[in-house]
Amino acid sequence: MALIEMKRIYKVYNPGEESEVRALNGVSLSVEKGEFLAVLGTSGCGKSTMMNIMGCLDVPTAGEYLLGGTNVNELSDNQLARVRSRAIGFIFQGYNLIKDLTAIENVELPLIYRNIGRAKRHQLAKDALVAVGLEKRMHHRPSEMSGGQQQRVAIARAISTAPPIVMADEPTGNLDTHSSIEIMEMLSNLNKKGTTIILITHDIDTAEYAHRIIELRDGRIIRDHLQEQKAQKEAGQ
Amino acid sequence: MRLGQSFSMAIKSIKNNKGRSFLTMLGIIIGLAAVITLVTLVSGVKKQFMMSFETMGTNVVQVEYYQDQRDVSKEIYSKTLELSDLVQAYTPNLSTYETVKQKDKSINSCRILLGSEDYDVCSNYTIERGSMFTHSNVLNCDRVAVIGSKVRSDLFDFENPIGKTIRIKGERFTVVGLFEEKTGAGDYMNNVIVVPYTNNRFLMNSPAVSSFIIKAVDGDATNQVVTEMQEYMKELTGNDWGFWVYSENQYMDFYDEQLAMMSLVGGGIAGISLIVGGIGIMNIMLVSVTERTREIGIRKSIGARRIDIISQFLIEAGTISLLGGLIGIAIGSLLSLIFGRLLFQGTDMVLLPSMPLVLGAAAFSIFIGMFFGFYPANRASKLHPIEALRAE
Which of B59, B192, B302, B305 could bond A81 through an S-S bridge, CB–CB 3.0 to 4.6 Å? Predict the structure, then answer.
C-alpha cells in the first residue's frame, strides 16, 4: 500500500463565481514510503495547493486522498490536526517560526501539541537542533538568526516529532546558494534515514535532489519521472 | 496542551506587549479596586454600627408615654410581669443634666439617669465595684447613685468612690456602685450617674415617669414584646398617638437595609465598570487574534487542535484579567486603608478587605477574562490553517 494515494483530486476556489480558480484538475498520484519526491512547477500551477492537501491542511473539492490508508476527506478538523501532529512535518518558504519564541521553544511546539512531558520534550528539541547544527543558537529568537539558520530551526521543528513524512514548500526560496545547498543536503540525509520527503519547488536545480520529479501545469501532472541516474549513482556510492 | 505551557506563553505574550496589556487591565483594575473599597468600607461602617449597638445593648425595647404628665411606671411594670417569659429586665428611663460636685471637684453637665435596680441590665452596663442600688432603695426614694467611669475619674481621681458622697442639685447622694468603662462610644456613655427613678420629683420637678426600657430575652422575644406593648399602650392611652414603642432591632434592620442599598448601588456601578473592563479585554484579544493570525496558522499546521488554540487565548485573557484583578485588589486595599483612617478617626479600627473578598475578587477577575476572552479565542480556533498562514 502506498503511503500517499491521491485519486482524481480537484481543488476549486470560489466555485461558480467569476473568480473561480481550478487549482488542481484531477490529479492522481501515489507516493511510496521512503521516496524523495519533488513537485516542480511555475507559480500558480497548483503545487502549493497540492502540498496543502497532501499535508492535511486543506481538503479537496472532489477526489479521494488516502494517507497511510486513511481517507482524509472524512476526517474532522481535530482529526486532521492529529494527523498533522503525528504524521507530517512542515518546512515553509518563509520559515514560519513564532517570533516571540526562542529556537528551542519553536522546536518544542509540535511536541507540546503531542502532549510530550517537559523533560523529554526538551531533550527531543535539543537533539533536533543539534542535528541541524544549531546547538549554540538554541536560546536565540528568530530575529537574531540568519535566513539559513531560521530555516534550519524550521527543519528541526519539522523533524522533532520524527514524522514519517516531511513536506517542504520552497524551502530554499529565501536563501542564498550556500544556505540552499546546506538545507537540501539536510533533506537528502533525512530521506536516507527513511523519511519520505515531498519537496515543492519552482527551481529545477533544487528539484534535482529528489529521486522522483513530477511537473505540474495548470493543475495537472504533465510529467512524472524517476531520476534513474541519480538513484543509480547514489546506489553505487 | 498543558496548562502550565499555556500559562507561560500567556505571561510571555503579556511581557511582549506591556503597554497594551496594562491598558487592557485598566478597566478590571478600576472595577475591582472600586468593588474592594466599597465592600470593605460598607463592612467597616456596619462593624462600627454593630459595636456601638453592642454598647447600647441588644434586644432592647423602648416605650414612651406622652399622653399626659403621669407616672405610668406601675402599669408598665405590671405588664412586664405579665410578659415575664419574654422579658429579662425592666426600668424606667428618665434623664436630665445637672452639675455634680464632690468636695472641690465638679462636673458641669453630667448626665443623670433615673431608673430601677435593673438599669444596668437594660442599658448594658457592667458593675465594676460595689453594686446596683436595690429595689427597696427605689421604693424608699433613697439618695444612692451608681457612677460611670468618667464621673469617677473626674470627681475621685483614682480613689475608691464606694461609700463616698456626691452632691447633685445640692443634695447628697451616696455612691454604691461603679460601672465599667464602656468602649467605642466615647465619654457619652461614661459621663453618667444612675439614681433610683423615684427621685424624679426632686430631680425632674415633675411627677411624670413616661419613658421605659424593656430588655427582652432574645431577638424573637423582642419582636413579640414590641407587639404586646403596642397593644397594651393602645389600651392604656385609648389612641394610636399618645405613645411610642420601638426596638433597636427594628432600627438595625433599617440600617442594614440602607447599607445593603448602598452596597447594591455601588456594586452595580463597579459591576458596570467590570463589564466595560471585560469588553476591553475582548476587544484587545480580538486585535491580538488578528495580529497573530499567522502564528495561529503556524500552530495549527504543526498539530494544534481547536481546543489548544482556545485554551491558549482563554488562558491569556484570564491571566491578563487576573493580573489586573490583583493590581485592583492591591489598590482597593490601599484605598480601604486610607478611607478607613479618615472615616474612623480616633478609633483603632483598621480597614482591610477580608480574605474571602480577596479570593472571590481574584476568582471573579479570572472569570471575567475567560468569559469575555471566549469569543476571540473561539474565533481564533476556527481560523483555517491555510488562510491563517497566508496572513501577513
Answer: B305
State phi, psi for A122 to the nearest 5 degrees: -65, -40
Distance CA A31, CA A211 (A): 12
Best mutation target among B301, B309, B315, B390 (most A Cβ atoms within 10 Å) is: B301
Residue from B12, B23, B18 nearest B312 by CA:
B12
Query: Are the CB atoms for A159 and A131 separated by under 8 Å?
Result: yes
B171-179/B192-196 β-pairing: unpaired
Q: Are B197 and B80 in contact (CB under 8 A)?
A: no
Residue A150 structural domain:
4-236
Q: What is the pLDDT of residue B277?
A: 86
Nearest Cα residue to B212 out of B138, B119, B132: B119
According to the model, what pLDDT value does residue A232 have?
A: 54
Q: b/e for B304-314, b at 16 or more Cβ within 10 A? A: bbbebbbbbbb
- Per the DSSP assignment, residues forming a β-bridge with A197 are A36, A166
Q: What is the DSSP letter of B72?
A: -
- In this complex, is the C-beta atom of B392 within 8 Å of any C-beta atom belonging to chain A? no
Please identify among residues 245-304 of chain B the ones whose CB lies closer than 8 Å to any CB of chain A: 294-295, 297-304
d(C-alpha B295, C-alpha B176), whole Å: 87
Quote the pLDDT of residue B372.
Answer: 92
Q: How confident is the model at residue A37 (pLDDT cuts 50, 70, 90)?
A: very high
CA distance to B24, B210, B214, B241, per residue, from B67 (Å): 67, 9, 20, 8
CATH assignment of the domain containing A190? 3.40.50.300
Q: CA A57, CA B384: separation in Å to the nearest integer?
A: 8
Q: Are strands B211-216 and A220-226 parallel, antiparallel or unpaired?
A: unpaired
B13–A100: do the CB atoms touch at under 8 Å? yes
Per CB-CB distance under 8 Å, the chain A contacts of B298 are 96-98
* CA proximity to A90, closest of A105, A79, A106: A106
Cα(A156)–Cα(A189) distance, integer angstroms: 13
* Phi then psi dihedrals of residue A217, to 5 deg: -145, 130
The one-letter code for the residue type at B127 is I
For B237, other C-beta atoms within 10 Å of its C-beta total 16
- Cβ neighbours of A97 in B, within 8 Å: 298
Identity of the residue in B1, B295, B386 whose CB atom sits nearest the CB atom of A58? B386
Query: How far is B21 from B317, CA to CA, in rounded Å?
Result: 10
Element (H, E) at B211: strand B211-216
Chain B neighbors of A85, CB-CB under 8 A: 302-303
The pTM assigned to this predicted structure is: 0.70
Instruction: Please report the number of interchain residue pairs, chain A to chain B, with beta-carbon separation below 8 angstroms.
Output: 65
Grid coordinates standing for B60? 432592647
Tens of pLDDT, residue by residue over A219-231, are 999 988 876 555 5
Question: Quick one: pLDDT at residue B56?
Answer: 63
